[in-house]
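Write out the 3D structure for:
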Amino acid sequence: MDSIAIVGGSPLVGEIPISGAKNSAIKLMAASLLTDQPLRLTNMPRLADTRFLGKLLTRLGANVDEREGEDGSETVLHTPEIMGAIAPYDLVRQMRASFNVLGPLLARVGHAKVSLPGGCTIGARPVDLHLKALEALGAQIDLHEGYVYAQAPRGLRGGHIAFPFVSVGATEHALLAAVLAEGETVLENAACEPEIGDLADCLNAMGAKVEGAGTSTIRITGVSRLGGATHAVISDRIEAGTYAVAAAMAGGETRLTRTRPELIEPLLAKIEQAGAKVTRHADGVTITRNGTRLKAVDLETSPYPGFATDLQAQFMALMTVAEGESRIRETIFENRFMHAPELARLGADISVHGGEAVVRGVERLYGAPVMATDLRASVSLVIAGLAAKGETVGGWKKSCAPAAPTFAASRATGASTSGARARAPSPAGRGRRRPGGDQCRLAGRRGQDRRHPLGCGRAPPDHRLQSLPLGIRPQGRSARAQRPAAGVGAQRPGAAAAPRRPRRRGQPAFGRLRTGRGARRRDPPAVRRRWRTALRSGMHRRRPGGCLNRLAHPAHART
């Protein structure tokens, strides 16, 4: 899916089960490299990231079996032997979290070669804390040609690791490596996210000894080997928070099940302050808003248990229609306001100053073509489109694709989403774009796209005329039949139809270039000037026979 279209104005009503957390599932999959016994993970999300990591694990020697079990989707991973401790760039670059296979490989076989993950659009995400943590456990690290060469010939040894700042990825990576290290390892200033506790619970079920997960100090006592286990992936708090914001944005009553309210408590508190009703249950939460306008609320992102940075873009979309002025401060990533200009295309009033955005609520948003830059930005635009008047058409990069099914699949979950629909890409991927930038969505015969007339096929009459330079008209009997009632050069409302002047013998049609002997003499000067300009600028076209065709608009000229 490379685009999605939303017709806003419909409330969300229904029940939505929350799937397993992606951020936890991919680290649990990497943990399967630590044992030669099968690891069974239930409540697994089916995402592009898990598929990418599955390909990498298969290359390293794992057997990855995805199936449907009694509790929903599950994955069984079994790595009886490491076939090769090399993670190449073409696989690691598809997902940053795959870099976390370095620690398990190093802990199990004593060496590894893993590509650096590369950059990220939302800001700098270096892996230096990961490498320093592994060096503190006795690993020898060498960087060469974009790869990390790590060795621990005598195995890893326990150590004391004090992170200079909280890092979820570095905490998880150190935890994965330290469970097989000899002696005790202490992690200070560790991340406290629920996914850390979920990883520790799975490792303990496999035979590890991890204490204090979920606090700032974690103690790990190394063991000689780990066994197999069955573990249920924790529910995705970012998915739950996204649906909660969508329900508050569109109105109606939506119940989220198979999750724990305490996982998104900072967000629920902000939604309550904004004026929506929040009802907490043992297995979920219900969001209700019927007609009342939201109120502006300030927020600041911070590590867990603070407001999650992965929910900042969604909450900004919510504040665009709130009464008053809200200030949103981002403290985790420096480039996480890239969605603000796209929200402004829908009518939002947002000004960004460094790490702070000021959102002044408006009465209504209006649909428009938008483009997402990252995963959370894409879903924030979907949320805004749910409340916008008219149609919002969004284009998504491949890296943003997981956000699109969030609402496209809402019908299957039971929510009433008649106002949202997904649009599949054009058959054979041959869609064109108009000069204004919006995509042509005119389906032709045999499922092929109908494209622009000048150099790329036929189009409806109004599109044909708008594509031509001012004053130029298609010629011939078929062109006269296709002239629209309104558009460029159309008759004004209420004006009398002008009688058509008969063309004298030998007089050329306006806009047509005569070729052959005496062409310059018989063509009007205005026509000759147009063609001289066209020939100099390369805007002309040639028919298969070689004669010059009509003028092409510069926006459609192909080199």
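Residues 508 and 524 are 8 Å apart (CA to CA).
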